[in-house]
Amino acid sequence: MNRERAETYLRLLAEAELRDPALASPSAPRPADAPFVTPPIALIRAAWALTTVGALDLETAEAIMADAELAVATRHRSVAAVLSSPGPRLGPRRFAGARPLARMSHSRLMPSVTSPSPADTAPPESPAPPDGPDRYVPVGQMILFHDELISGELDLMAYAHTAAGARFTAAWRARDPLGARHHGVPPVDAFTLTDDRGQPYGLVFDPKGRPESTCDLTLRPDPPPDIGWLEITAPGEQAVRVDLNRRAERPEPQISAINLSIGEHLLNRIAERLLTLAAEYRVDWHSRLSSAPAHRAQLAAPVTNLAGGLGATIGALEAAEVLSPLSPVPARLAALCASLRIGGHGITAAPAPDLPEPWLSMLTHYHRRKPETAPAGDGFAGVAVALPELEGIRLVLLGLHTCDGGTWMDALALGRLPGLHQGALGLDMAFPLSMWVRDGAGRWHAARPAGWHHEGGEAALTLRLTPPLTRSCARVEVLATGRSAEVRATVALCWGYPL
Amino acid sequence: MNPPGGSGGPSPRDDTAPNGAWFTCLPSCETQVPCGTGRHTVRWADGSLDLPSHSDVEGELVLAALGGDKARCVEVAQAWARHADDLSVLAIGPRGPADQIAVDWDDVLAAEQAGSTVIGPVGAARRKPMGLASQPGPTLARAGARQRQMQEEQLKAQRRRNDVLSLLALGHGFQVRLIGQVAAAHAARHGGEQVRPALVAAITGRLAPAAEEWLGIDPDQVVVGLHAGRSWGSSELTGYGADRRLRVSLPAGWLARVWACGLARVGRHLIVAVQEPGWPTARVLGLRSPGAQPEPLVVHADPDGPGGVPHWEV
């Protein structure tokens, strides 16, 4: 990594942007009501990329951007506009939360070696997880409940017992005969739980920052590690026995060594975000985004905005020597932008003739106008699969559920846990893995973090699948990619209702 | 007088150079600054800022420290001293005679007023602590400390921005002289790894438009390296079409001795060094074409150059 060249690149980019004739052109004045002067998007993207990979420290990047902002403002005669903004170095940092990917482990795969978590990779309140045998059991059972205020179901997907405690990972939904939605929580304090030794327990409900439909149900007190079953009785319902002797499936994951540079890893994550954004905003892939009618262009704005400055991003990564000029990834990004009919990205590489299979799958799916395909109905599946460690993180998959047209995969993350950082462009670069799920029909779904909650050296994590599953399938293939390795695991889904 | 305010700053004079101070090719210049109820002259001459309307600056500073108002002229001189080695000056200041910066004293006043209403002095908003029913917990204390730190950073940034705007409001002649002073300060220290990117960008940003006038080359095709040897540097033209590049290696002092003195391009020559500085006549080294040996030239200044920067002719 060449930090001096990285900084030089960013400063020279600022110089080039300042020479942009559009800047000085009186024919292109700023709107009078524009809230503040912003540096050119290429500069913002390049600065973000360099700080994200750790080639440039936040303070230097902020200083360069602040100077560029003031330089633009003083030539626009828009000093007053600058003054009305929080200011270059005022308020929250532009790149706040960026966690340099470079500081993340990328050399270790298996076996997992516990090492002290560096201060910058774990939140202060999250001690390193102690050693100890953990227990993960797929469940896939539904618990109905009803009282005078609320009725509904708790869908138990998995049981996990770690150093942080024992809990069920569950999805839940309320049922109201009048059709109104309840936003209360299930009356779990009225549930009774007993284990195979007659020990009673209480349940604590906690969504842990995840989507509304997902929660952890923590057992109090903490049970012995080897209980055989739990009998759960909800108000107004029969007792349901949950077998905890069921063996968690231990798939033999395929581990392949790869060698992605940190720059390639970042570009891949941007590509995945482009794919998911285009799907989420239901962009019409058949018309050119840059020439789309106003309403459609507005709809596509997040996608075109994400692609803006990609050329500068690539240039910055190459200057910092974290992306080889021979890397195939920029050409793939160019091909992806061409497929999405996104212009103005500034990538100079010619579009690649082939794309990674998951990207192609999503493109093909949407090019065939499949976005309107009805998603799978509400459902849930028990899963308990521990993946090998990647990038210092061990993921344990603890459930998959579909709800309100969306599909979520629930997981527990252990190891060198990053802090919660929603980075620029909706890219959660704190989560260092690229995750994909292939359904039974062979279609790929991007899985990106939608919720992330630290507790006791662990993190409850929910990954949202894009596009959502359109049907229940007995197995899925999970692909997790870091910089030094990728892991493929076939995961059996234990659905909580008949397929 | 030398600018007041601050010790340990860089010397404005690069007197160690074998061929005289960097500003020897520059005439004095002056401007009017709103100060108190009138307008006062601020003058730059021989590398220093003078305040002819303020005979006892030190005394005024003592009075200001005791609660009196500080004269704007004095504030400007202090800002000049504070930023005499500030690389941000190179990033914000003008790139050439055609690059006019639109900041005037009204903007400075607006900036100061915005700063005082938006931020205000730290802690001034609430002089008496509010009573709390219970002692604040550690989380609250941390949040309070963060807020104080953020306020202090805001105030510091606001002051810095007001400083820069004041210096820009002095006009083009002062702007280029300040750039020369900053560049000379870093050239005298022989730059370091930490300042090289800023110096490379600063030279590129100012050489590129001069090279465009010189060769008609696209400014984006100018590639600058920082020259560290005793010679003037090097130049070459490579490639064709979109791959065409003018590669020039120059020392940081070029910004001060050549560019800031209005010497970047004289006639058909790109000036790369000053052999015998002087005003209004100097001896310089000029390139007729990339890759050629620089030619010694005697150049003469027209004192009526734009914005207080002399216009030179062979």
Written overview of the protein:
- With 499 residues, chain A is α+β, with helices and mostly antiparallel strands.
- Chain A folds into three domains: 1-96, no CATH class; 135-243, Immunoglobulin-like; 249-499, no CATH class.
- Helix content of chain A is 24%, strand content 27%.
- In chain A, strand 12 (393-403) and strand 13 form a beta hairpin.
- In chain A, helix 1 runs antiparallel to helix 3 and helix 3 crosses helix 8.
- Chain A is elongated and about 75 Å long.
- Chain B is an alpha+beta fold and 314 residues long.
- Chain B is built from eight helices and eleven strands.
- In chain B, strands 7-8-9-10-11 form a five-stranded antiparallel β-sheet.
- In chain B, helix 2 crosses helix 5 and helix 6 (172-188) packs antiparallel against helix 8 (253-259).
- The longest helix of chain B is centred in the middle third of the chain and has 32 residues, at 138-169.
- At the A-B interface, helix 1, helix 4 and helix 5 of A face helix 3, helix 4, helix 5 and helix 7 of B.
Q: Residue share in helices of chain A?
A: 10-25%
Radius of gyration of chain A, in angstroms, nearest whole number: 25 Å
Q: How many domains in all of chain A?
A: 3
Largest sheet of chain B: 5 strands, antiparallel
Q: How much of the residues of chain A is beta strand, in percent? A: 25-35%
Structural class given helices, strands, pairing of chain B? alpha+beta
Secondary-structure class of chain A:
alpha+beta
* Uncertain ranges of chain A: 26-36, 86-100, 102-132
Envelope shape of chain B: globular
